[in-house]
Amino acid sequence: MKDMLKLENVQIVNGVKDWIEAIHVGVQPLVDTGYVEARYIDEIIKNTEKFGPYYVLCENLALLHASAEQGVIKKQVAITVLKEPVKFKEDGYDVRLLVTLAASDPESHMQAMQAISNIFSDEKRIAMLVNADTEMEIYRQFIAAANE
What we know:
Elements: E1 5-13, H1 19-32, H2 39-51, E2 56-58, E3 60-64, E4 76-87, E5 94-102, H3 106-120, H4 123-130, H5 135-146
Parallel strand pairs: 1-4, 3-5
Antiparallel strand pairs: 2-3, 4-5
Helix pairs in contact: 1-2, 4-5
């Protein structure tokens, strides 16, 4: 998992005005570091408008992603912690943890999903991540959990 998450792609943000800004903020580190094309943001927004927020998995957690052909350059994960929650639909969950997955092939997608499911099947771990004070703390928690 270490090759799929770089510290430079972990961020803590005070808040966003809506779900569209949340997607922009959550994906932007991968655009800035060359792992996805800018259109990956637009593709996730289009998919959300078409299918709803299919990536909101539970309270506090959204796994932002689109298909590889929608702008992935290289496999990578970005993590954004929002200090103030956002809703992706009016009656939906409050989300504070955005995990953006850019998978370039089915194998890397499955590896990332396995690690992510290990991490996020534990509510205490999610709470620790959303309450972290530094990007390094989030990064270390994520890597440690992925290796369990």
